């Protein structure tokens, strides 16, 4: 079972040290770190949603699949590359499981939205879970079945093997989209570059 963190008020962030805010997640031994990739409509909303899941250490928005290397947001939106907006989630296996991340996925968007069936035709967005191992495929499929049993409309989410599917990091303005609206706060935390936004645990939390 996943746990949703309470939302942090941006205006109250300085009521406590930022270093303490991030300390519970900022360092995790590499043997406990795993990554997962999800696509569910807009990557702005999807990234914010996973930032609220306890145990998620980092998030980064990007483009998954497709036929060209390092596509731009404009190219992806025009539907000429075959990529979809996606989010790569880095998480601490001791605090949250892959199964729980899949269960949280259904709450981030409407997985029954038929518009996702038009991926590659009239939309570049889709609902998809990208798995790396057979065990992840099984967990994703079981999670989908559990969710489907609660709905009266068919889930259109696809479960895709990630082998051979590249993930390209999106441009800076698409990282921690909601947090970047608070530019003074970002400056106070020395968050400017794409890498800084992608690697920051506190930015991951505050963006949610």
Automatic annotation (TrEMBL):
Transmembrane segments: none
Keyword Transferase: no
Entry GO CC: cytoplasm
Pfam families per the UniProt record, alphabetical: PMSR (PF01625)
Highest taxon of source: Eukaryota
Name of the protein in its database record: peptide-methionine (S)-S-oxide reductase
Residues covered by the Peptide methionine sulphoxide reductase MsrA domain: 35-186
Classification via PANTHER family: MITOCHONDRIAL PEPTIDE METHIONINE SULFOXIDE REDUCTASE, PEPTIDE-METHIONINE (S)-S-OXIDE REDUCTASE
GO terms, molecular function: peptide-methionine (S)-S-oxide reductase activity
Native organism: Actinidia rufa
Family: Belongs to the MsrA Met sulfoxide reductase family.
């Amino acid at each position: 079972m996943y746990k949703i963190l309470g939302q942090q008020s941006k205006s109250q962030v300085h009521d406590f040290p930022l270093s303490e805010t991030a300390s519970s997640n900022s360092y995790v031994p590499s043997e406990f770190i795993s990554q997962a990739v999800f696509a569910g409509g807009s990557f702005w909303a999807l990234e914010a949603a996973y930032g609220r899941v306890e145990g998620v250490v980092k998030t980064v928005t990007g483009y998954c699949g497709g036929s060209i290397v390092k596509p731009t947001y404009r190219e992806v939106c025009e539907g000429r590359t075959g990529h979809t907006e996606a989010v790569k989630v880095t998480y601490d296996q001791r605090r949250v499981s892959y199964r729980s991340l899949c269960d949280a996925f259904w709450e981030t968007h409407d997985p029954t939205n038929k518009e996702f069936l038009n991926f590659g035709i009239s939309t570049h967005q889709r609902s998809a879970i990208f798995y790396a191992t057979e065990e992840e495929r099984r967990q994703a499929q079981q999670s989908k079945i559990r969710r489907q049993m609660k709905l009266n409309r068919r889930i259109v989410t696809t479960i895709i093997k990630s082998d051979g599917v590249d993930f390209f990091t999106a441009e800076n303005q698409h990282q921690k989209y909601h947090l970047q609206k608070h530019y003074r706060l970002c400056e106070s935390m020395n968050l400017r570059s794409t890498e800084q936004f992608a690697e920051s645990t506190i930015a991951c939390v505050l963006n949610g």
